Amino acid sequence: MKRFILFLTFLCIGCGIMFSQSKQLSPIVNIKGVFKTEYQNIKKGTPFVLQQVVKLKKAPEQGMSRTQAVLVADGMQLGLPMNMLNIVAFQPDDKNSFWQSRQLSNDLISYYEKKGYQEAMRKDQAQEANDYLKELEQSNLFYEDAAVEDYLQCLLLSIAPDQMAVNREGIPQIRILKSPTPDMLMLANNCLLVSTGMLTTLDTEEELYAMLSREVAHYVLDHAIITVNKNIARAKRAEFWGAVMDGVVAATEEYLYERYDYYEPGLIFITNDIVQALVNDHIMNRMGLDYTEKQEKEADKAAISFMSLMGKNREALVSALTKIETFYRTQKDVEALSKYGAYGSLSKRLDRMGTAPVLDEDRNYLKKISGVVSYEAAMQDYNKNYKESRRLAMKNIDNGMACSDDYLMVARSIMKLSNTPEANKECESYLNKADEISKVTNLNICKMKILLLLRENKQMDAVDLLHQYQGLLDAMFQQPHTEKDAQWIVSEHTWAEKLLDRTYIM
């Protein structure tokens, strides 16, 4: 017995010396697991702790891999060739060990051994992501709400690893993109873009948690860099961004008052054309975000497993993806369901994951994003998607979280889609409610009341309200305002004067 213990002692010392002289390919990670089969003197079912991954100076045996996982099992330190990692089952117990084990299982270390870390490409990708964000910023395409952004960032921090098993650092940071389509884009500079459409398509925090977990999976498994290596044909950066963003800039240069009769100073809504310019196949290909079906499958599996580990509803991912697919089918956006990455393989992936109950609304979640819902309702109205605008606004109203604009959006949708005495009465009630709870004078409410009175042939009442509307415009002109606001005020004055003339004639 003493001899056996002495042998193990020398063995551990020998292993320690051997591993100490090797090249470290990972930090100390300490991932728990069990052996699925017998290995050397280790029995099946024996628990272990994977400490790190190293590259030996020379192979321990002929034909054995020099890249080895350093394990501690039964009080011994031993090496397991990375190409034999399938004989163990990882049992992570926290977010770090979960994502670290995924990186090892996906053989990322071997990938970096073959390809190198590609610092130049990563730097180039990060710079292009910075250029992309700069263009978005200049085009006023970020939704700014510090409270919502912090809420999303806290969720992301609870998912993303603090330490990886490979030579990568950084914690993703969230920005919210003004876009009615449900999108998430993890850029090479560690910025995760989440669209307003994604936040409003989902109804629960667990659905959002599941979708964030998918993006973290893409990030941790380095899918973008792997994909870029396959999409290696690349244009010069300046030429590329010049071509891509021309359409965005041109679209945002149009004055809002020229296109839209619902106007709020300083607020710019996004058209579907702008979204298509922002998120298209060319950009996705260049940034490596046109993930393969295999990569999307990996992200799905990782997200579901992570949800289980963290005590979340593992069916939340299926629920979220089902709602996203329903959004595109409702919008009759067949192209979206046949294009790159997350959407191109969506139906297939849902079939594979099986059916699951769609999660009911989470009041706490909806409360936190109620401002986004209001904005999204107005954006859908701007894009003339009146049914969708009403659905979103009613989401806030039904949950007791509505602002004045939510009632206004419902009233606008009613007027745009129907003209009956019953509908007009309903519209009037929503406008009165909007007026009642509005904390500031809302010119849009006044204008819609004018239009409703004319619709009901109440010309004299409309005349009185038109005069009030002109007074409100004058008051707005006396307040600090932009040149764009001034132009809009003048155009509205002209509209009101012409309408007064026609109304007097009537």
What would your notes on this structure say?
This protein has 506 residues and is an alpha+beta fold. 58% of the residues lie in helices and 9% in strands. The chain is built from 23 helices and nine strands. The strands form two sheets. Strands 1, 2, 3, 4, 5 and 6 form a six-stranded antiparallel β-sheet that branches. The protein has a three-stranded mixed β-sheet with strand order 7-9-8. A hairpin with a 4-residue loop joins β8 (184-186) and β9. α18 packs antiparallel against α19.
> Helical proportion?
55-70%
Instruction: Note the main sheet.
Output: 6 strands, antiparallel
Number of strands: 9
Distance between the termini: 112 Å
How many helices? 23
Give the class from helix and strand content and strand pairing: alpha+beta
State the gist of this model.
By secondary structure, this protein is of the alpha+beta class. It has helices at 2-20, 95-105, 108-115, 119-138, 146-157, 196-201, 205-220, 223-230, 237-253, 272-278, 281-287, 293-309, 316-330, 341-344, 346-353, 363-368, 370-382, 386-398, 404-417, 421-437, 443-455, 459-478, 483-505, and strands spanning 23-24, 31-35, 47-55, 67-73, 76-81, 88-90, 173-177, 184-186, 191-195.
Keywords, please?
506 residues; alpha+beta; SH3 type barrels; six-stranded antiparallel β-sheet; three-stranded mixed β-sheet; 9 strands; elongated
